[in-house]
Write a structure and sequence with these properties.
By secondary structure, the protein is mostly helical. It is 66% helix and 4% strand. The chain has a 3-stranded mixed β-sheet with strand order 3-5-4, with helices on both faces. Strands 1-2 form a two-stranded antiparallel ribbon. Helix 1 (17-40) packs antiparallel against helix 2 (48-78). The longest helix has 40 residues, at 201-240. The mean pLDDT is 94.
């Protein structure tokens, strides 16, 4: 079975006539935007026709830009050594920097309008983009002059984005020697991490130790990358007027601090339940005291061997069908049309990924399928992202942006569907193993991501005083892991380079890729509880909810499903579902 994707519907190759035409068209749209600016920004009167003209040109530009950049990024993700992809990515980002000034100037010009409500309702096209326009007004408060924003965009190509690519290249190409079945093999960091789910306890421990050793060899480069990326973020966000990197992320996520505080309050209250679970897991795995960190994701029983890619595909189809036939057919389309690259190999990014290509109505998904049960969940997770985007198929490019916390809701909702379907069709013994894996996944999204959140908060506090050494980063990571995992794990078994396998820390301009996953897990739990109450009638309402996510903030889109994210009790109720599962597992294990 083919386990690699096909990008031909984007471009057949870097030398294709189609790519060359689109690259020229991108330049044409850039010139169109500049001409629009020269003609309209000198005129104080903001008219519906002039605003509509900008939005139409900008939508056209985005349609080409997204395709070109997606082709470069997808190729790079699957092959970090591709110079053609790297050159195209640099070229497109450089071209994009040319219009930053125009976009910033448009926001400022539009914000001078003193009859905005009347202006928007006077044009069906502006009405279609009213949420986008109001978001622009909010963003305009945190922007510098056109000249400075253009300079920042250009400098980031050789600054944070270059550091990010260096990190990706080093971690994807790093190899370690490992004895597997009596034979010494060279394995990637991604392969080593996947072995945390193996049945073989000796292999889990050996892989964990090999990962730590491999990380030590590239730690200095990764520390330099992290210092470069975080230092740039502090400088730029401070210049723009944000109080912190976290404030910038909350605004970009359309999420207020009240929602985050409510969620974190409930999460902290639930940590002792997870600590109890980890203590029980240590007992089941035969550890005399606390759980070693290398066994945090270990199965508690012997699973039925390796899962084939074909079996994983069929499991996803049948599981999604329990929710809706439409979701199942969508997954089948993604497999049949080769949207997925699941083949493990050197030089490929060791992370799950979904890139949506709205102009062609498709997505591309990357995973490292090694035959472990967790691989089904990862595939379901990324397919959830792709399905979410498919719900926005009829929107313009400017109306396809939705906040990361909600994006993670859709992906984790699909994971939940698969887990519940598998449990329903399993024996009691199999169901207990799957329940444990579900709790383990929840611990990953909640406990581990809480540790990541704590680390990032403290990283920016410390980075404001100067760069952090490898040793300082190691100590900070361990302290945050201990705070989150508490009495559940043996702190002496945490390898000090855990910060290096958190790719989110190294994604330029994408800080705090941690609490959105916790939000996604808990919000999806609340949605799944509603699905169990409403049955078949829920599926179309859920699809409408996903459609609405690009045109609402988080508080308002939650209200469309009758959920109050400002309420600590809402988050507590979602966590109670997981705590109940922990209770069942401990009683039956």
């Amino acid at each position: 079975m083919n386990m690699t994707w096909n990008l031909d519907s984007l471009y057949p190759s870097f030398e294709s006539e189609q790519l060359k035409r689109d690259r020229k068209l991108l330049d044409q749209h850039i010139q169109d935007l500049k001409r629009w600016a020269e003609h309209h920004l000198k005129v104080k009167d903001v008219t519906a026709m002039s605003v509509e003209g900008f939005l139409r040109i900008y939508n056209d530009y985005k349609s080409i830009y997204v395709c070109l950049l997606a082709y470069a990024e997808l190729t790079l993700s699957a092959d970090r050594g591709s110079e053609e992809a790297m050159n195209l990515a640099d070229d497109i980002e450089e071209a994009n920097s040319e219009i930053i000034g125009v976009v910033v100037a448009f926001k400022r010009w539009f914000s001078t309008c003193d009859h905005m409500a009347e202006l928007i309702v006077s044009s069906p096209y502006l009405m279609e983009h009213q949420f986008y326009l109001r978001e622009l007004l909010l963003q305009s408060r945190y922007e510098l002059s056109e000249e400075l924003e253009m300079a920042i965009a250009k400098m980031q190509s050789t600054g944070s984005k270059a550091w990010s690519r260096l990190y990706m290249e080093r971690t994807s190409s790093a190899l370690a020697d490992l004895v597997v079945d009596g034979e010494t093999r060279q394995v990637t960091l991604a392969e080593l991490r996947s072995m945390a789910y193996e049945n073989n306890a000796s292999l889990r421990k050996a892989a964990y130790e090999a990962e730590a050793e491999a990380c030590s060899r590239i730690a200095e480069v990764c520390a330099a990358s992290l210092n470069g990326i975080s230092g740039e973020a502090l400088t730029i966000y401070g210049m723009r007027g944000y109080q912190s990197s976290l404030e910038k992320v909350l605004i970009a996520s359309r999420m207020d601090s009240e929602t985050l505080a409510a969620m974190l309050t409930a999460l902290r209250e639930s940590l002792p339940a997870f600590h109890t679970y980890y203590q029980k897991k240590a007992e089941l795995l035969g550890h005399p005291a606390k759980l070693p960190f290398y066994d945090i994701f270990a199965p508690v029983g012997v699973e039925n061997g390796k899962i084939t890619y074909a079996n994983a595909k069929d499991t996803i189809f049948s599981s999604f069908a329990t929710f809706s036939e439409e979701l199942s057919c969508f997954a089948q389309k993604a497999f049949d049309q080769q949207w997925i690259d699941a083949e493990p190999r050197s030089g490929k990014g060791g992370y799950g990924l979904c890139i949506d290509i709205f102009p062609i109505g498709e997505s591309r998904i990357m995973t490292q399928f090694t035959g472990n049960a967790i691989d089904i969940s990862i595939l379901a997770h990324e397919l959830g992202h792709a399905y979410h985007s498919s719900c926005l198929a009829n929107e313009t490019m400017l109306n396809t942006d939705y906040p990361i916390p909600i994006a993670e809701t859709a992906s984790i909702f699909c994971e939940t569907i698969v887990n519940h379907a598998i449990i329903t069709n399993s024996t009691e013994k199999e169901a207990l193993l799957i329940l444990e894996r579900s709790i383990s996944d929840a611990g990953y999204y909640l406990v581990d991501f809480y540790a990541r959140y704590l680390f990032e908060i403290k990283l920016y506090e410390r980075r404001a005083l100067g760069p952090l050494s490898v040793q300082e980063l190691n100590e900070l990571m361990i302290a945050c892991m201990v705070e989150a995992y508490g009495e559940g794990i043996d702190p002496g078994t945490i390898h000090p380079y855990m910060w290096m396998n958190k790719a989110g820390y190294f994604m330029a301009s994408n800080e705090f890729l941690n609490f959105p996953y916790s939000f996604g897990l808990l919000f999806s739990k609340g949605l799944y509880a509603e699905y169990l109450k409403r049955g078949e009638e829920f599926a179309p309402k859920y699809r409408q909810f996903l459609r609405d996510t690009s045109k609402h903030n988080i508080v308002d889109v939650a209200k469309t499903m009758d959920l109050d994210v400002h309420s600590v009790d809402f988050w507590r109720s979602a966590l109670k579902l997981i705590e109940s599962d922990i209770g069942v597992f401990i009683a039956k294990a």
